[in-house]
Amino acid sequence: MMTTGDTKLDRVLGAKTAKAFDSSLGLSTVGDLLRHYPRRYAERGELTAIAGLEIGEHATVLAQVERVSKRSMRSRRGTIVEARITDGHRSLNCTFFNQAWRERELLPGRKGLFAGKVTAYRNQLQLAHPEYQLFDAVTEQDEEEHSAAEQFASALIPVYPAAQGLPSWSIARCVRQVLDVWDGAEDPLPRQLLERRELEELEQALRKIHQPAQFSEVESARQRLKWDEALAVQLVLARMRESAREHPAPASPVRQEGLLSAFDRRLPFELTAGQREIGEQVAADLALEHPMNRLVQGEVGSGKTVVALRAMLQVVGSGRQAAMLAPTEVLAAQHARSLSGLLGELGTGGELGAPEHATRVTLLTGSMSAAQRKQALLDAASGQAGIVVGTHALIQDRVSFADLGLVVVDEQHRFGVEQRDALRARAGDEVSPHVLVMTATPIPRTVAMTVYGDLETSALRELPNGRSPIATTVVPVAEKPSWLERVWQRVREEVQAGHQVYVVCPRVGDDEAGKRTAEPEDGTEEPPSDEGEGQRRPPLAVLDIAEQLSAGPLSSVRLGALHGRLPTDEKDSVMRSFAAGELDVLVATTVVEVGVDVPNATVMVIMDADRFGVSQLHQLRGRVGRGSAAGLCLLVSEAMEGTTTRERLDAVASTTDGFELARLDLQLRREGDVLGATQAGRKSTLRMLSLLSDEELIAQARAEADAFVGDDPELTRYPGLSRMVAELVGDDRADFLDKT
Ligand code: ADP
Ligand code: MG
User: Is the CB of 600 under 6 A from ligand 1?
Assistant: First the structure.
């Protein structure tokens, strides 16, 4: 019988080992194991840099024993053996309980591989109960040990993502066993592609990635395997774009002297060059008979709302409806208000004395009263409402529209490819609405080509005139505790000058008090941390801070609290009071992150700023400096100088270039997170491809994918490619494209 990619591992490795692979790494076939690539390669004699280890990671390090000691436990009977291993610069403690004999084995000077979970204890990195394998140990003729020694003799030692019970060296041994009997694989990539891009064959690449003789072999194998990943994703996206083009859409050409021109005439400001340019692109897209799928990215405050409204008016002007989806109810309500505000009397459709062309904006959210909701649904279904604004739940609810021509999705970063697909399908099979997605998160080009690869993209790169610059300062309360009092003093001064202030906290508080980690509200990202998990106090909470401030430093100001757990009408009324200037200071969670627009707010204080992601901080501070007065953002944090955490904050303080920060964020979040979890043991589609460094390759793969799909949409002449696509969209892995 042949051994192929589909062969179950138990046939080659035996039931017990196969079971271990399945349960701890989720690998069950030969193909799965061969795609479990080494994370890196250790060179003979070269020790692993301990400083590069991440807390919480299951690491394999090549290190040397520095010293070993044994002592009795204080509280219980038994002994602890502590071995300190080193890379020559930093050291790592390995502890063993009740295994006194290890003291005789772990002799100073000996080198080996050590594997285990990295933890921190009193500022010292450690591996508790690691598995290890010493290289110069030939005394015990254990089979595994022997093979490790053998492997050590080869130049490059593959270091695999490992798991408890399956150390890297065991994985390497099993891979060797599998490769010995493997009959190879048919190459899914067409011959011409391999030649055109100078790629090596799949079988060769897979063998080399696991057993390279030198680094150049690793390089060529990686190049080839990255192509597989990039091309599969791009083929899926090319097919999405292709099938979107085939769908008929409601063509809505601009009407002369219609609603849009009436609106443009009464706009109180000039459009920026970017707004005009994107406006023209969008107007042209909407006039076509296949659906627009466009992403508009633009910094907070760059004026995306006007762009979206003008698109909606073009569609409404030709007798159809537009829907606008926001991620939260607060935002939906705010959008409805600001659209109505911008429209003025053009938004009074159906009322007495409304001007010609006037339309109506209807708000539809889950928490409206039954009667209100019924009316809103009726307006949508009858076509009375030209513009319907609601939360994303709106689509899931299958609201019926008389004639939906355009869907605008605001603040896209919580909205994935699949949801967009569902949206396009929602108008039924005959016509798809046009889709315009707006995001304030600047998206690096590679991410745009993958995560948003089903969309055409345009960017608004300038802010409207009259926007004020935002200054950002880190307030390092660990080193300079007195600065915090200065912060509140500054807030009081700002309020005295007639301005308003946000204070943002990572957590709501109250019943979650005492919980160790933050319950992220509204998708708060947990940023990377370089501290030990166990030593972190709970993040500061809105309820606690609001209480402390109103009892103390801010007792003289009018203070309100806003968070996601408040009932909707209360949220609304707090937000409204703040917008109306009836509150001076708003203590809030990230519910203020997106879209909230209070031009009189000039200062934002972010408590525990290190608990937020880079992009999120950037988004948050965009809430201030929206009026004519300059904005100030204060990042309060206990992060110490010199830590990566602090570096992230300093970076946010140093630039307001969102694209630069997005790049940095991608880097710091270890990019894997961007496309979904890549924890050890979880299969993930992009194992080899790096969104940071493979921009060129991704662009090439996109061009190739377009050409293949354009030439043969069903890929019938390319069975290999067709299989790659099927595998990717098949077993439930379409979430590969979802951003976290
Ligand atoms: P975004 O949604 O991109 O964060 P908004 O659309 O909310 O930004 O615009 C921010 C503010 O700038 C709003 O008050 C809006 O009315 C105003 N604005 C938009 N475009 C212009 C422009 N061309 N000139 C002056 N102000 C503008
Ligand atoms: Mg907005």
Answer: no
